[in-house]
From TrEMBL:
<dbReference type="GO" id="GO:0007018">
    <property type="term" value="P:microtubule-based movement"/>
</dbReference>
<dbReference type="InterPro" id="IPR021881">
    <property type="entry name" value="NACK_C"/>
</dbReference>
<dbReference type="GO" id="GO:0005874">
    <property type="term" value="C:microtubule"/>
</dbReference>
<dbReference type="Pfam" id="PF11995">
    <property type="entry name" value="DUF3490"/>
</dbReference>
<dbReference type="InterPro" id="IPR027640">
    <property type="entry name" value="Kinesin-like_fam"/>
</dbReference>
<protein>
    <recommendedName>
        <fullName>Kinesin-like protein</fullName>
    </recommendedName>
</protein>
<dbReference type="GO" id="GO:0005524">
    <property type="term" value="F:ATP binding"/>
</dbReference>
<feature type="binding site">
    <location>
        <begin position="116"/>
        <end position="123"/>
    </location>
    <ligand>
        <name>ATP</name>
    </ligand>
</feature>
<dbReference type="Pfam" id="PF00225">
    <property type="entry name" value="Kinesin"/>
</dbReference>
<dbReference type="GO" id="GO:0003777">
    <property type="term" value="F:microtubule motor activity"/>
</dbReference>
<feature type="coiled-coil region">
    <location>
        <begin position="492"/>
        <end position="548"/>
    </location>
</feature>
<dbReference type="GO" id="GO:0008017">
    <property type="term" value="F:microtubule binding"/>
</dbReference>
<keyword id="KW-0175">Coiled coil</keyword>
<feature type="region of interest" description="Disordered">
    <location>
        <begin position="379"/>
        <end position="401"/>
    </location>
</feature>
<dbReference type="InterPro" id="IPR036961">
    <property type="entry name" value="Kinesin_motor_dom_sf"/>
</dbReference>
<dbReference type="InterPro" id="IPR019821">
    <property type="entry name" value="Kinesin_motor_CS"/>
</dbReference>
<keyword id="KW-0493">Microtubule</keyword>
Amino acid sequence: MTVRTPGTPASKIDRTPVSTPGGPKVREEKIVVTVRLRPLSNREQSVRDQVAWECIDDHTIVLKPPPQERSIQPASYTFDKVFGPACLTEMVYEEGVKNVALSALMGINATIFAYGQTSSGKTFTMRGITEKAVNDIYKHIVNNPERDFTLKISGLEIYNENVRDLLNSDSDRNLKLLDDPEKGTVVEKLVEETATNDQHLRHLISICEAQRQVGETALNDNSSRSHQIIRLTIESTLRENSGCVRSFVASLNFVDLAGSERTSLTHADGARLREGCHINLSLMTLTTVIRKLSVGKRSGHIPYRDSKLTRILQHSLGGNARTAIICTLSPAMSHVEQSRNTLSFATRAKEVTNSAQVNMVVSDKQLVKHLQKEVARLEAELRTPDPSAHSGSDTSSKEKDLKIQQMEMEIEELKRQRDLAQYQVEELRRKMQEDQQGLNPFESPRPVVKCLSFSGPLSPKLDRKDLARGDRTRNTMGRQTMRQSSTAPFMLMHEIRKLEQLQEQLGDEANRALEVLQKEVACHRLGNQDAAETIARLQSEIREMCAKQSIAKEVKVGDVVAVNRTVSTNLKEEITRLHSQGSTIAGLEEQLENVQKSIDMLVLSLPSNNQQPTAELTPKTKTQSKKKMLPLASSNSVNQNFMISPCSPRKVFESEVENRAPESDDIVSCEILQESEKGTPTKSEEGTPCYQRSSSVNMRKMQKMFQNAAEENVRSIRAYVTELKERVAKLQYQKQLLVCQVLELEANEAAGYNLENDDDVSELQEPPVSWHVTFRNQRQQIIELWDVCHVSIIHRTQFYLLFKGDAADQIYMEVELRRLTWLQQHLAELGNASPAHQGDEPSISLSSSIRALKREREFLAKRLITRLPAEEREALYIKWEVPLEGKQRKLQFVNKLWTDPHDAKHVQESAEVVAKLVGFCEGGNVSKEMFELNFVLPADKRPWILGWKPISNLLHL
Ligand SMILES: Nc1ncnc2c1ncn2[C@@H]1O[C@H](COP(=O)(O)OP(=O)(O)OP(=O)(O)O)[C@@H](O)[C@H]1O
């Protein structure tokens, strides 16, 4: 049989908090500490020992040394209760521990300790307390007939650190303590007897006491030489018919400790001395545990395991139990020091907090009983269908229906999810097939990744400002390129062809956009001959461009593979051809830029931009506005279609033909409309046909509608052109990337790598790295290269804020990295030599980069005043450690930005500051379009942006 520790009184425990309405779930409670001062013993009286202590009230005990004992300082101690020599044990029980002891009847573990020096009255007190508690327990049982109570008792003593069973007189052996993950510490094979009644219980208790080790010392004829623990386990359940299967279960421990003793006073030797040592040692551990617990449970390690006593009583010390300690004192002057120690222990114990809970248990036996009853009831119900039970079955059938409905819905949902998943798989498969066929490299970055991106880790970290390391990076990149598939050169050419097809497509789209715009202008009848002419000119240029491209198109993609034996020659030819075509893309960009300008002009001329509110219009302005407005409305149908699919002008035009009436008809219909609204034709100042204005409300409404439609049309075209521009920029980027790769291949070839015999490539191949990791590595490398190459910090900020690891950013990251690597190499080769001139622009050099960066920092320093309020500036100076009294603080501050590429926080904060100064973050809309990737010449040329231009010049793009 196994006794359970107080924290785990039963095998299947479902602990629920102490039911204190409105109170905390776990009852946190300090240990109840009382002091009992016994009368002077006969022995003490016989040696004329004097009384040193006095209980001055119910809570305070004071040390009052007699006048002749001048060396002893008076002292006062306060506790939950103090009991003087005249107090009976009953009072100690009633007022000191009863509450705690009887908690066990409600499922709360409880422990009552007696602590004190030898012969101070512990055993005397605990015997009385145990007796009183047993009385009360049985009184409670009698008073609560609705509950079934089971009382079990076990008794053990810890003698010389051995655990002995006090109910098993045959067993003299040391019982083992076992650690159970669920129950805590358990004493193996400890006898547990079930008490049949109070008499039986008392008898069992008396057996325990009789078994206990007692010996005579100089201070006590019957000195307890061991710590005794009598444990009552009380389990109570509501009686059978209640159907309740949960029980309260708790342990009530009566702990009579052996007394601390001084060998000098007990005159112990031999066995007594050995006992005394063990007693003192385990009490010392108890004191340490209490001391540590008194300063808080989280005060580090609590040495419960240092003695068997503290191990067994762990739950009573700061755990799941209510605990009361009675500290017993001898009043004798001769024991003042020992009594002081006891009071000091008591004072510590007052500060220890326990967390008691109600222990509920579901016993297997009860559960089986309950289930058997339930089964019997259901069987009976089935046998005799009772009409009253019918309504019940109706309810349950309704519940079933409801459940079935619910399940059907769940099945439907699951089916839907399955179909969706199947569809997604199909989509994925289709896309993969498309990718393999290389249908459209723009739609997804995947083909680029497959053919162009690095698969291995990037080059090692660059040392700051170490241009000489360019070689290493270059070689690493070269090797990385080499690690790509041996078909890389063919794939490159394949990619180039695909890009060209795309470029052609873009040209087509731009042309269509222009056509739409031209029609819009024609309909507009702005009289803006210039705009119409410009657009016509642009159209013819684009047509010309398309014609040029068709010659190049004659080389089919498939042909590339056919000529794979002369890879190097082909690549060189490709480069030459690309160089010759470089201006085409630039031209396309420029043309689109012009289209946008034309649109801007249109926007400026729209009624909304120069029209006053109708009520305030002068007759002249009214005439003008009407003149502009009506034809625009007539073309509305075209542009509504255009708005639906701005990226697919082919569709737009098809529907345009179907839906749109001739322009002249539109005008006529407008005229008719106005005529019918009793307007009179008139002439404008310019003498162009004009339409009668209507003063009616309907006419005003119509005007408003037309105006809105016109604005919408222009906005749509504008958005479309912007998108085209972005796509052209992307195309440019991809082309650059290809050129970079071709250059690298050439360089590698020149360096002796055998492109066509790449047998050991597989050996070099490294496991694929996830895009996220690659992105982080690439970004870090880019940041370091920016620093090394003194790249514009505005550019750095733009790039840093724009590309944050999106899958679609791969190509941009690679191009940036390649450009920078190229630039680093170029700068290293050039050193500080005077740069050669490329056309009108001087080629970039290290010193020119540094100068440009310096100018940029000066510009940003000036912006500090206009962009940031004084308080924010001051805060930044403090944060960035710019001396408050220093000169040129603005420049000092800006000079600190973007200076440490290895500090991620510094980089982030630098980017944030620069973004604020330049105004990137305003409105929170940082878009890729906004940056235009620096391939389109910025309208607002700043010296720092020019820093990039020579790179493209050097690449002849
Ligand atoms: N409150 C009291 N009133 C009268 N007599 C008392 C009281 N307390 C203790 N005594 C007597 O004092 C003597 C010693 O008491 P007791 O054996 O209980 O001390 P103890 O602390 O258990 O000692 P030990 O640690 O050596 O076992 C006993 O003879 C006991 O009857």
